Amino acid sequence: MIASLLELGGDRVERADVCVIGSGGGGAVVAAELSTAGLDVVVLEQGHHWTAKDFTQREDEMLPRLFEEAGMRATRDGSVTILQGRNVGGSTVHNLCYAFRTPDPILRMWREEHGLTSLTPEALAPSFARVEKNLRVKPIREDEINTLNRIIRSGAETLGYSGFVTKHNREGCVQSGYCILGCSYDAKQSMLVTYVPKASAAGARIYADARCDRIEAEGGRVQRVLGSAVGPDGTPHGSIEVSARAVVLAAGAVASPDLLQRSGLGGDRVGQDLHLHPSVMAAGFFDEELHAYRGIPQSYYIDQFIDLESDPHRGYVLMPIAGFPVLTATQMPGFGRDHFAQMRDFSRMAGLLVLLHDRSAGQVRPGDSLSRPRIDYTLSADDRRQLAEGLVHCAEVLFAGGARRVVIPFQPEALVLQRGDDPTEIIRRGVRQGEITIASTHPQSTCRMATSSSQGVVNPFGEVFDVRGLFVADMSVFPTSLGAPPQITTAALADRTAHHILARWPELSA
Ligand SMILES: Cc1cc2nc3c(=O)[nH]c(=O)nc-3n(C[C@H](O)[C@H](O)[C@H](O)COP(=O)(O)OP(=O)(O)OC[C@H]3O[C@@H](n4cnc5c(N)ncnc54)[C@H](O)[C@@H]3O)c2cc1C
Ligand code: SF4
């Protein structure tokens, strides 16, 4: 069952074996694994249940409908925009389907430096296998690579930079290119069309428009979840109370620590250690029309500048990016005529972004309301240097791919490089917050896994230290920045937590 709590109306009191909060990359997996094993599961999802027929492929309609704070979520100083989904299926409904397992050197670093000795590739293999099967992960075919990604690949190959065509989770993709606004063809194998229906078919009661406001524990044991029926503006119109033997918090790396802090749970490290995989972009302008936004948005991946075997703590990758008009307009510098001049060449534009494996650590704290948490994040000098270096390589790749000019969107004055100009001018200008658009689609690590509460918030199976039966299963459990696309790691760790709950069920349900 998937129902809108808002449409049901009134106040509800429910009892369940397990209450899952959030239906995205982690929550949907837990709900499906537990309900198919026979547990009675209730899911509370604050966002609406939109489906393929609602995805109109229009930015003005989809950004406010599908994203937290209508796509305007940002750090408190406004320097980093953070995109997160707010709908049944969470951010997987908008993601771009890069599908990677956790890199082995990252798992090794988590074992050796964070004491998480059970996180071996072998131990995680069954979870990866289940997730990849359910999400239909497979390599992208040569004929599915669009113009944008071909140009970027050609530029990287000319320069001898290492890169590869990735795997993805699409089935029957018609290559429309609208992934970020939701797939109108049900081809993207997001949680919305995979794990969520699986959970529902197995008997999970999934309430959309149902926001968790607080989690209650007594005597070191989780007891119940209190929530409200909400619309897009967050105003409560009714209540829900779910008593459960176990609660799995999977509201994403911003809302999960916010909820724990509001509930007085999780200890001192809740909300600390925020990593963002911050990204900055360069725009290349070509003589011919590319229509870079058509076709599968991301299929190529440049990994020349990250060597996790030698140093698992730093580095960056380069990823093709094509925006739609509104998103691109917000990224491009200038005002009035200058801005219009850039946007007039929209169909000749190809973007390449630097995505950083960041060591800078920020914080999430409760704000005025659950809809507006306080997010702080300051880039370290080393991370700023890497982003600037990355932009130099973006410019090189775009020129090698045939761009006539490359624009680095510094504010208030963009840097415009013509063919033959020295791109190291980017390093002289430097990357400073507030002076260039920085975006994040991967907030993580705010309830990190550790071996003790002084180091983190949850144990290696996702259970909150000192609160029996309360688990976290989303991107907030990563011990450090991941340094790779996170959806498969999120889902595999959530699968592992679900199977741990099943193995402990006789004790947890007693
Ligand atoms: C634009 C974009 C592109 C991306 N591209 C890729 C990619 O190509 N490859 C990749 O690996 N990853 C990608 N990702 C990241 C990937 O989608 C995430 O790793 C994954 O969705 C994280 O899962 P999660 O459970 O942590 O959070 P989410 O999927 O965001 O789910 C959290 C859910 O909790 C709900 N929630 C929040 N607060 C409450 C509350 N109080 N009560 C009830 N519900 C609540 C939210 O509405 C949301 O549905 C992308 C993300 C974005 C935004
Ligand atoms: S490119 Fe494929 S997965 Fe993306 S929206 Fe179009 S049909 Fe769906």
What does this protein structure show overall?
With 510 residues, the protein is α/β, with parallel strands linked by helices. The protein has 2 domains: 257 residues, FAD/NAD(P)-binding domain (3-Layer(bba) Sandwich); 200 residues, Cholesterol Oxidase, domain 2 (2-Layer Sandwich). It contains 14 helices and 21 strands. Strands 1, 2, 3, 8, 9, 10, 11 and 21 form an 8-stranded mixed β-sheet that branches. A 5-stranded antiparallel β-sheet has the order 14-15-12-18-19, covered by helices on one side. The longest helix is centred in the C-terminal third of the chain and has 20 residues. The radius of gyration is 22 Å and the shape is globular. The chain starts with a strand and ends with a helix. The site of iron/sulfur cluster has 13 residues, from loops.
